[in-house]
Structures are given as structure tokens and as C-alpha cells.
Predict the 3D structure of the following.
Amino acid sequence: MASQGTHMYFILIKKPKNIGIINAGSICCISVDRYTSLLRRNDGTLTKLPMMRIGGSYPDHDIDIVISDMEPLTIQEVELLLAVKDESERLKWFIEKETLQTALGLAVHTSVTVEEKGESLKGIIRCISRLTAPEGSKSIGLSAMFFGIELQGKDKGKGQNDGTYKSKTLFKCPRDCGVIAPFSKVRPVVYRSLSPSEPLLSPQTQAEPLALGDRVTFMFDEDHFGHGMVMDVGERTADGQQMVRLSTDKDKNGVRGGETEVPLNFVFKVKEEVYPAGLEPERMDTDAPLAVPALDTHPMDLGVDSMVEVSLASGNTYGIIRWVGTLPGREETMAGLELEDNVGVSDGTFKNERFFQCPPGRALFIKLLSCRPDSRFQNQSANCVRVSPERERKQSGGMPKNPIAPITTDRVTEVLIGQMKGIQGHCNSCYMDATLFSLFSCSSVLDSLLFMSTEPRDAHIQGTLLYDIVNPLRSEGFVEGKHIMKLRQQLQEHGYSRTFTTDEKDPEEFLTVIMHHILALEPLLKLSAGGKVQESYCYQIFLEQNHSLVLPTVQQLLEHSFHSAGLKLAEVPSCLILQMPRFGKKFKMFDKIIPSLELDITDLLSEGSPQQCTLCGQLAYEECVDCFKDPLFGQTGFKLFCRTCSSQVHAHPQRRAHRATRLDMPKGFPGNNGPQVLARDKLELFAVLCIETSHYVSFIKHGPNNHDWIFFDSMADRHGGIDGYNIPEVQACPEVGAYLEMSPAELASHVPRDMKGVAKRLFCDAYMYLYQSTTMCLYR
């Protein structure tokens, strides 16, 4: 189950038995800490959860709810659904899904229709706001989300107010032109391909023939019309019939997607899109007469690797130009796009000829002139074209507008080392400074955050992260504190915390907001517990009270935590973020923790992967959780055995009561023919966040050698008094490597305050370890 910040949220899909105060459609929550504790206490198996109801007469009363009676919700879904007070109606909208999912994508300035007094009125969203105090416990802080709409055209004067609600001005508009409505009454304007008042255009009278990528209306039969995109126009058959292969928006049963073949005389080319009166958007006329461009050129300099946007009947879609040229049988210059979403027609092939490579369903061939720059980045760049860094510097006054590669080991000294290097701290920003420096200075594992598709309302935050922070850090080795403050202001304006610009936060809180709430990154971590998969962005290490660890490695901590919680990894993560066992920012469970430069997760993967016997190396068939802490085997690794070794180990009187469980082998995997040489799944350490006296710093492992370490402090020094500024510093710390080469006994003998350089802070103050998979990060 995925967590949403500090809590997990659910909607009841059926009324609980013998509980009169709660109905289907009620929204409940449970804290992540409480859920984790219950899961650990019940060996990973839960059938009921003590839930706190949000809203209603008894919002703070814990009620035991059967898990199968609930469905999970995101925070955004909760806030939209809370605006629908009737619980049965709320459940209806949740089950219907499409309206709720559409509402999640609505943004200010979107043209919509709103239901008001039985009429469907046309307007524009002017604000998306919470109107009431938080529902339920004060610690949750959620409240209903409403849309503020200004009516347009002939519908002006049919509204409720002037943008004011209970003496609070949400937006300004003329009297009786404002409407405050829940998502269930709001619909985006659907721009129709054909006006119902106009006759369909006969194929024989079309000004130009159908071309690949054209939008069309077609007839399934005399009673059913559909919309789609031309994938191919076939050759005429002997009887003169010509078929058109189409990618359909919906089939005649309303099912999305699919393909069909329709006779040419049943296909009608889409005319210019018709918009409701008064709501014509400002957009580029992609088919306006232009000077005929030469091959591989575009009036706005779009070409291969340009980030572009095209209009389809289902709305705007985005992609990257992978190929430009002419297609067989076509004269106009075409572009081959790799789209962000699966709304394309192939994998880069046209009529069985390959023009570029991309995942199936992502390729679309369309006229080059129908492409326009990606509007999500228009506030950062006029063209948003992926061109050479040299050309970008000329266009932008020095700073490239696309992600720059991380700083490599051979450039660290030149770019990063010294004072006024790294990210400048300002006003309790060290948690954000250290986190961003750790993630982006020398690693690209989470670079997808910088260019992944995001909602238009969040694009400015992504832009600040890329253009004002990551690119300057990687190119110049320095980011001014004002850019971090700009990001904090944007996050605060987004509504996630009123103190983002003033107070210190935890790195995991910042990461959850950026990765989940803003950029909707797929959870980094998928954990398997009792046959169910849980998702999260970070993993907090918990240990049993009777553990025997004294000077643990990160490897041992992770294994012991997984063992005590009954967890396994459902898949190899591209990035694994581990929070160390500590209580708050002061109390540490261990005086020192030894960094594991490599994290072997092979035995932590869930069943279905071939494993080796711990003792003899042959194919393992059993796992014994009771042997995990047996002193015979040491403190590292889950205990897996082949049949012979398991029999011998458990023949000992002390182990006869152990409960070994059988491992599932992949189908078709060869049996035992001696010791197996199986590949091990390993993650490599690339950064460590540390905290001491409420101040965060970070260590970066930037190269393959033990001595390739740097240390970053965003507030290492200060110039001037209260009106002065902080001086960030990055320094090499090769002494870390010397301690890593010591034996545990030798390392334990070193008094922390006597450790050389800054090494003490890495070994004694670790807060969060960051690992990456060099293989999996290529795919995520």
C-alpha cells in the first residue's frame, strides 16, 4: 500500500458490518508509523486496520475496518472527494473514476463547463482552493478542494458571487459571474472535431488526400461514428476498394484504444477544430500558410531531439522528435515522434520499414509543420529545442536549457572543490541543500524528475529545479541561495506547508513532496509482505529491541530490518533511499555505522529468483528465517539452503524446531548440477546525508576508489552579520577511504573526536544513505 506523506488514505467501498456510524463512501486514514508497526507486529499479515474517519460526526474515533472493504486514495483524490458531502454520491464518483481523474489534471485558466441550477454554464477556472477548516485530526490537515470559476459569454450573470466566499476573496470577477463548485460539477471543454450543425465533408470534396497522422471522423456503421488517427492508407484492391487503417480513440462500445480498418469512403477528414463561442484558446495555428521549409527544417527551428507538442482529438500530447524526412509515397516533410504516453501507432516503423526505435505504441508520424514547441517549458525557453550546449549558451545568455550530465570524477576538483561551491544555504535550508546536492551533483539516477511529463500547474517547479538549480550546479559548481528560496516559495504556494520558506524540514518530507505530490514519480521502492506489495520512496530501518548489532554495516541493518518486518523486495530498485535507525534528530541507536559501499540485495528479493545455498553454493530450495540469527552463520545474510545442507543443518538438536520455507524456482530453471554461479544484484552507494545539532551536510562517493569522497556543507562559513550571507564549501575527504579499509575491531577502537578530517561525521552522524542500481537506472 502506498503512503501519502505521514498518513495512508482509503475510501470505504462497502458499509462495514455492525458499525452504524460509518457508511460506504466514507474516507478514513491511518498513520504510516502505526501501519508499519502493526504490519511488523503481525508478521506482515493484516486483515483489519484501526482507521480514523475524516469528516462527519465522529472524525477522530478509531474504527476497525476490514481491508478488503476499502480502496486506497491519494491526498489529491481525498481533497477532491471531500467536497462531495453525500457519501453515496462520493462513492459513485470514485467508482466512475474518469471524472475524478480528469479533475486531477484541471488547472487555473482551463476552459470548463460547470453545472449550476440545472444548467451547464461555460467558464474559466480562476482558482482551485480549500474553503473550510481541515477535516478530522489537526495533525492531518486535509480539507475539501473546490474550483472557483468565472462564467463567460452568454452565461455571465448566472453565477453565485463575485469570486468571494464567506467574506474571503478567492478571485475577482463581475457580480454574479463567479461559481464555487466541487469537481463533480466541473467538466473540461471538449473541443469537437466537427460542428454538429455542419454536414460531414465527403472524401471526394476534400482539398487534400488523407495522410499518416491525420485526425479523422469515421463510420463504424450507419448508427455509430468514431474518431481516430490514420495509421495507413492501403492500395486499391481489384474491385477498387481502398481501406484505411485507424487507431481509434474509442470503439463503438466505448472502450478506449484499439485499431480498425474502414473503407475510405467511410472516412471523413477532420476540419479545423470548433470551439465554443468566447472560449477560443490562444494557440499556434499549425496549419497556417508558411514558407515551404527545406528538408529537416522548421520555421521555429524544431528538429531531431526537439521537445514538442501536438494536438490530438483527446487533447495535447508531448514527445521528442526522433526522425525528420519524407515517408514512402509522401511529399511533405514528416516528423517521427516518440511520445510520452502510449497514444502512438507503432514502435518507430512505417509500412514495415524502421525509421527510429522506441517502445511499442509510442511512435507517431506527423507533419513537421504540425509540431510546435512544448508549451510546458515556454516560460523557460522560447523554443525548448534540444540543441548543442554551445548553441544553447548563446541563446540563453550562458546556461543550457536541457539537463546537463552529472559531474564526473575527473571534473570534481575543477568544478566543485572550494568555497562558494555547491549550494548556498539560507534560512534553515540545509535539509534541502544537502538533499539536492546528494541527488544531482554526481549522479543521474533520478534525472527523470527533471524532464518527465508533469501537470502544467507544476511545470514551473520542475523548471526551477532543472534550470535554476541542477544545471548551474553541474556546469558551474555553484547555486545561489535565492534559487533554493524560490523553490521553497513555490512549494509553499502549492499548499503543502506554510513554513517551507522559514522552518527546517526533514529530507524525506521534501523528497515525498517533490517526487510524489509534484512530479508524480513512480514509487522507487516496492516491498513484498505477506503476498502484498507496498510502495514508498524511502525506507526507514527498524530493529528489534533484542538485536545483537554493535558496530553494524548498512548491509546488516537492512537485512535485520527486513527480517524483523517480514519484508522482501518485489523488484530491484533503481534508487534505494535508506533512513538510519534513530529517534528524532538527536538520539542515535549506534555510535558508529559502517557504510557498505555495495549493498548486496540478492537474498532480499522476493521469491521467484534463483538463489544459492549459503553453505555449498548449489541451487537453494529452502529459506530458514530461524537460522538468521544463529551464531554459527554470523550476522550477515538471509540463510538459504539446498536440500542436502538444510537436512544437515536442521538435524542439530538446537535447530530441529526451525521452520524452513520452500523457495519458488523460476519455471524451466535447470536443477542442481554442482555449485551454481549466479549473478548477484548489487546497489552502489553514491551519497550519505548526515545530521548533527540540527544541521544537515552530505558526503558524495563520486568515483570507483575508496578515496573518491567529497564533503558538502551549505553553511560552512559566513560573511558579515545579520545582513551577511552563508558561504557553502565542498572539500575532498580522502581520509574516509582510509577508515573504510580498516577492520571493524580497528574502527571501533577509534574515538570519534580523534578521527581525521570530517570522517567522524560520516561514521557517527549518518541520517540517510542513497544507493543506486547502475543497471536499473537505465530503464527508469
The radius of gyration is 30 Å. The longest strand covers residues 119-130. Residues 183 and 647 are 62 Å apart (CA to CA). DSSP finds 16 helices and 43 strands in the chain.
